[in-house]
TrEMBL record, chain A:
Family: Belongs to the ABC-3 integral membrane protein family.
Annotated compartments: Cell membrane; Membrane
Pfam families documented for this protein: ABC-3 (PF00950)
Protein name: Zinc transport system permease protein
Keywords: Membrane, Transmembrane, Transmembrane helix, Transport
Keyword Transport part of the UniProt annotation: yes
SUPFAM superfamilies in alphabetical order: ABC transporter involved in vitamin B12 uptake, BtuC
Automatic annotation (TrEMBL), chain B:
CDD domains per record: ABC_Metallic_Cations (cd03235)
GO molecular function: ATP binding; ATP hydrolysis activity
SMART domains: AAA (SM00382)
Keywords (A to Z) from UniProt: ATP-binding, Nucleotide-binding, Transport
Taxonomic source organism: Thiocapsa roseopersicina
Name assigned to this protein: Zinc transport system ATP-binding protein
Source organism superkingdom: Bacteria
InterPro entries: AAA+_ATPase, ABC_transporter-like_ATP-bd, ABC_transporter-like_CS, Metal_Ion_Import_ABC, P-loop_NTPase
Keyword match Nucleotide-binding: yes
């Protein structure tokens, strides 16, 4: 840890990596909370994997792969959302198909692009140490879009997440806000791909919010704690991986996963103890 | 008040706020509703009864604009159901949200204010005041800070009622509001509805004709089509017609039974 702090002072790429992790954790806290309470983790996974198609195509045609990722993420979010709204039943099949088709397209494009190997690995598993400094601005821009949208439409997003039928009866354009929410998930996926790669995105999107949900019972509280936890996981994961020269992304995910397991057991234990104490109190109190 | 083109009854100056004409609806092959005509007048307390799968919930969904009529027409406050839905408060039979959702009672009630104020931004202080008033009206103000998942069936029903009331509706529609709570609570809820009827038109669905007949002005019986539409007494013939041969006349504990025969004497 001492080594890491010392190196952090010396190396600009480590500072950039740390900042990238912190910027990503804002998305994973705010949007991850919606993903967890709305139970659309599988949908987010589908969006994340289909992104490879966009990245591969962008690479092949000589664009920034991040722009390709953003386009592919929003496109598959809209596709999944529209199919769910129109047919309701076929959604999981479609997600599975988009998941695989996106990856297949991506692999084909990457195979035909010269000098691909390192890129593929960092797309899949992320390489936070290779994030260029200018991309921090791109990430900050995405964060701003997420925050402003959620703040402006918090009531509608909450209503659509909580009770779609009732929101419709209050005149909220449910289809629009449902698609908007999925687009926000898409933007967050792109944000997180920088840090942990598209395969591991789903863990960073759900675990911090799920851990927060063990202890706080309001959407806003979950967002705040999940953001903080996201920051802790990315920073600590980076620090832990630095000494033994481990890949940073998987280290962060394992850290988040372990904390989640411990927290799930602990929160269940605490809930049981509270219930027992309440029973005792009512028994002695009358 | 704006009203539809429906005729004004000579006996009463009241105007229809819901008028349903020759309504037909089917899911796929089998018709659920056929040739339904029903008018609910301003200020009335109408009970909609009928057997399970008799089309009661479907009729409500049509009145709320969640479904489109395949035949006939519906007008609510002189408008289409979709246009009028903001002036209609709805209490569903089952909560249509996950019970473990991290949200407080106050926040749930506030979602009823969504049709008010600007599209952007947070709830205003007038919304919060309205939410507390609605909770006080259903005698659930002490639950405001509780998490929705910790409520009992009766408490949850009151909160759902507050969520409907906070939108300042003209019409209140309830689908089996007491299906999931015990009988003592059932009376409490209907006493509350009777008080609200002083300023609201109420349409309540129930399968329990004997119980609700003590509270409502009028009963409409639905079994695919409107079997009866009566202000007269509910007797064995009617129940027979509605539910078929093998219905036992079940004696109801509590207040319900005594009211079964003094239904609506307002006359037609």
């Amino acid at each position: 840890m001492q080594d890491f702090l010392q190196a952090l002072g010396q190396h600009a790429f480590l500072q950039t990596a740390l900042l990238a992790g912190l910027l990503a954790s804002l998305g994973c806290g705010v949007i991850g909370t919606f993903v967890v309470v709305k139970r659309i983790a599988f949908m987010a996974g589908g969006i994340a994997h289909s992104v490879l198609g966009g990245m591969g195509a962008a690479l092949y045609f000589g664009f920034d792969p991040l722009l390709g990722a953003l386009a592919a993420a929003v496109l598959s979010a809209l596709l999944i959302g529209l199919v769910r709204l129109a047919w309701n039943a076929q959604e999981d099949t479609l997600i599975g198909a988009l998941w695989a088709i996106g990856m297949a397209i991506g692999i084909l494009f990457i195979a035909k692009t010269p000098g691909y190997t390192t890129d593929l690995m960092s797309f899949l598993f992320g390489n936070i140490l290779l994030v260029p400094r200018r991309e921090l601005w791109f990430m900050a821009g995405l964060d701003l879009v997420l925050l402003v949208t959620v703040m402006l439409f918090y009531r509608q997003l909450l209503a659509v997440t909580f009770d779609e039928e009732f929101a419709r009866l209050r005149g909220v354009p449910v289809a629009f806000f449902y698609l908007l929410l999925l687009c926000l998930v898409a933007v967050t996926v792109v944000l997180l791909i920088q840090v942990v790669g598209l395969i591991l995105v789903i863990a960073l999107l759900t675990l911090p919010a799920a851990i927060a949900g063990h202890y706080v019972h309001s959407l806003g509280g979950m967002m705040l704690i999940a953001t903080l936890l996201g920051g802790v996981f990315t920073s600590a994961g980076l620090a832990l991986s630095y000494g033994p020269d481990l890949p940073a992304g998987p280290t962060m995910i394992l850290l988040a996963g372990s904390v989640y397991v411990v927290s799930a057991v602990l929160s269940r234990f605490l809930a049981r103890r509270r219930a027992r104490r309440r029973r005792l109190l009512t028994a002695t109190g009358g | 008040m704006i009203v539809g083109s429906g005729e004004v009854r000579t006996e009463s100056p009241k105007q229809p706020v819901i008028s349903i004409r020759d309504l037909g609806f089917s899911y796929g092959e089998s018709p659920v509703l056929e040739g339904v005509d029903l008018e609910v007048l301003d200020g009335e307390f109408v009970g909609l009864v009928g057997p399970n799968a008799g089309g009661k919930s479907t009729l409500l969904k049509l009145v709320l604009g969640l479904l489109e009529p395949q035949q006939g027409s519906i007008q609510v406050i002189g408008q289409t159901p979709r246009q009028a839905v903001r002036r209609v408060g709805y209490v569903p039979q089952f909560p249509t949200f996950p019970r473990d959702f991290p949200i407080s009672v106050e926040q749930v009630v506030l979602t009823g204010r969504l049709g008010f104020g600007p599209m952007l931004g947070w709830y205003r202080s007038s919304d919060r005041t309205a939410a507390r008033q609605a909770l006080a009206e259903v005698e659930a103000l002490d639950l405001a800070r509780r998490r929705i998942g910790t409520l009992s069936g009766g408490q949850l029903q009151r909160v759902l009622l507050a969520r409907a009331l906070v939108a300042e509706p003209l019409i209140l529609i309830l689908d089996e509001p007491t299906a999931n709570i015990d009988q003592r609570m059932e009376g409490d809820i209907f006493d509350l509805l009777a008080r609200l009827n002083a300023r609201l038109t109420i349409l309540v669905v129930s399968h329990d004709i004997a119980f609700i007949s003590g509270y409502v002005d009028r009963v409409a019986c639905l079994n695919r089509t409107l079997v009866c539409h009566t202000t007269e007494r509910v007797d064995g013939d009617l129940i027979h017609q509605l539910y078929g041969d093998n219905v036992r006349q079940v004696a109801h504990a509590g207040s319900g039974h005594g009211h079964a025969h003094n239904l609506g004497h307002q006359g037609h």
